[in-house]
Amino acid sequence: SQQGEEDPQALSIQEGENATMNCSYKTSINNLQWYRQNSGRGLVHLILIRSNEREKHSGRLRVTLDTSKKSSSLLITASRAADTASYFCATDARETSGSRLTFGEGTQLTVNP
Amino acid sequence: KAGVTQTPRYLIKTRGQQVTLSCSPISGHRSVSWYQQTPGQGLQFLFEYFSETQRNKGNFPGRFSGRQFSNSRSEMNVSTLELGDSALYLCASSLEGSRGYEQYFGPGTRLTVT
User: Fold this and answer.
1) To probe the interface with B, which of A58, A97, A99 has the most B CB atoms within 10 Å?
2) What is the pLDDT of residue A3?
3) Cβ of residue A68 closer than 8 Å to a chain B Cβ
4) In sequence order, what are the beta bridge partners of A78?
């Protein structure tokens, strides 16, 4: 099963509103990454936050990480119709070497114009 | 800089056949990972290659294999295809691996097994 669980599974908002997605994971991690996927296409990297960081910003994106609760959240401010996509969190477990991302189930975000 | 490319983009095969998918990473990237995405199981890690060596392997049967060439290009092969192998296969490249480095994904190969 997926290590990560995302909440909510689906989110529908109006343009201009903020969207918050949550991710929980089970093991100790090196970093956590958020990706966006448009309708069955490739994944686009949004932001990476390391285990020793608590918050990170990139444009309209704000990511928080709470390693004590093994959870992260992605906030998209002032959403646009173009933000409609699936959003996935992915973790890089501490005990693995190299690259092995474990993905959450994803949140389907719909931004209505 | 060119992105990650995957060929072919779409593929239709019948049960029992085998298939080879190709991935060209971003120039200078040495790590290539493969993922399978299905509606039921989501995104699952297949394997990772780094400098022509398999560095990590997911929980997939031996019918799934891969390799990496000296120019970092990678191929994955699925033998004796089953209906359940129908999926979007994504490859990702990064400089050294996900540890502290972002992964860049290709557009994927959509495999349909009939």
Assistant:
1) A99
2) 54
3) no
4) none
